[in-house]
Design a protein that fits this description.
- The chain contains 16 helices and nine strands.
- The two termini are about 15 Å apart.
- About 50% of the residues lie in helices and about 10% in strands.
- It is of the alpha/beta class.
- It has one domain: TIM Barrel.
- Strand 7, helix 13 and strand 8 form a beta-alpha-beta unit.
- The chain has a seven-stranded parallel sheet with strand order 1-4-5-6-7-8-9. Strands 2-3 form a two-stranded antiparallel sheet.
- The mean pLDDT is about 95.
């Protein structure tokens, strides 16, 4: 259950120390809504009271050490004019992108997080969750890294082409999103978020060469991480990365915690980030958590913890999103094993 020393433990591990127990988290937004069973995903995320109630119930029901208000990738971009689709239990996703032109960038207006779109609803849910738990749970909001933000504005294909056709526009759009995501992150921090989940899956090794990552994605993300440090909010960065050279590079971003994908060698990842940032990961959410038995889940949780926890600077969790239809028994087995072997 949530405990008074949780944020002290997280700050200890962020400082690369050894906490009193290893925090255990789950990227479980869809699973939690299904388990909560008080409405469709769309109904939950468009009502701040329902959104807060769902995450409060999930934290209490499964003993998560965070309340992860990730929701979906559209909150910022639908305000900027990007088309988004989703209904019922299908998460919203960007679909109709804006033209990748200087005119588009010039016409963008910085949103007001307290007035525009679903941003105020998200802030209200954060306030309610923080009021419920105080510092006994790590209340975690959400942003995207600048390169991934640009890809969600123009579309991934157009963004990739900008690296060759108009790199200046790509750099300028990334800078716009450094400012926007700083503003959005600060609003969440002021609403009560201890940390921000910074998604950058459009900049992972499956999408960019290491040179292109370094030339176009690394610098803006590093700037954003510095801004979050100045604000005082923790940054948990996730690109679902599994390749060691990229993990080594991402460890230089200046983020507080680096989350790695389920295919990464957790021992190698821990060595790569040691002395640079804390690590989060990386139970396989499909092969193990969804499709395995409770015994298999517990066994793999034990293996990961015994590999990554020694020496501190580590948070246990899945390496990617938990599928909606994951068996409840498996989620409970994961959290029980995380408690048993994370002390």
């Amino acid at each position: 259950m949530a405990y008074d020393g949780l944020m002290k433990d997280i700050r200890t591990l962020v400082a690369l120390g050894t906490p009193s127990r290893v925090p255990a988290v789950a990227h479980s937004e869809e699973f939690d809504v299904r388990w909560y069973n008080r409405g469709t995903y769309e109904e939950i995320i468009t009502d701040p009271d329902k959104l807060a109630a769902c995450w409060i119930a999930a934290v209490k029901g499964f003993d998560y050490d965070w309340a992860w208000l990730q929701v979906d990738d559209c909150i910022v971009y639908e305000v900027l004019g990007v088309g988004c689709v989703g209904s019922g239990n299908i998460l919203r996703a960007t679909s109709k992108y804006l033209p990748a032109t200087k005119e588009t960038l010039k016409g963008l207006k910085m949103p007001n997080p307290h007035k525009d779109g679903r941003m105020p609803l998200h802030l209200e849910a954060i306030r309610q969750v923080r009021k419920e738990f105080g510092d006994r749970v790590c209340v975690t909001g959400r942003t995207e890294a600048p390169f991934s933000s640009t890809a969600l504005l123009y579309g991934i294909e157009e963004t990739m082409m900008l690296m060759y056709g108009d790199p200046d526009l790509l750099h300028a759009t990334n800078e716009f999103f450094v400012e926007l995501q700083t503003l959005w992150g600060q609003a969440q921090y002021e609403a009560g978020a201890h940390a921000l989940w910074v998604g950058d899956c459009n900049a992972m090794s499956n999408m960019l060469s290491l040179k292109h990552y370094t030339d176009f994605a690394f610098g803006p993300c590093q700037k954003l991480a510095r801004n979050y440090k100045q604000i005082g909010v923790l940054s948990f960065m996730h690109a679902s990365e599994e390749k060691l050279p990229y993990i080594e590079k991402q460890a230089e971003l200046g983020v507080d915690v680096l989350s790695v994908g389920p295919g990464a060698d957790i021992a190698a990842a821990k060595r790569a980030v040691t002395g640079k940032c804390a690590l989060l990961g990386n139970l396989d959410p499909i092969a193990v958590l969804k499709n395995g038995t409770p015994a298999r889940v517990a066994q793999e949780t034990e293996r990961i913890l015994k590999t990554a926890a020694p020496g501190g600077g580590y948070i246990f969790g899945p390496g990617e999103m938990v599928p909606r239809d994951t068996p409840e028994a498996n989620m409970r087995a994961m959290m029980r094993a995380a408690r048993d072997f994370g002390r």
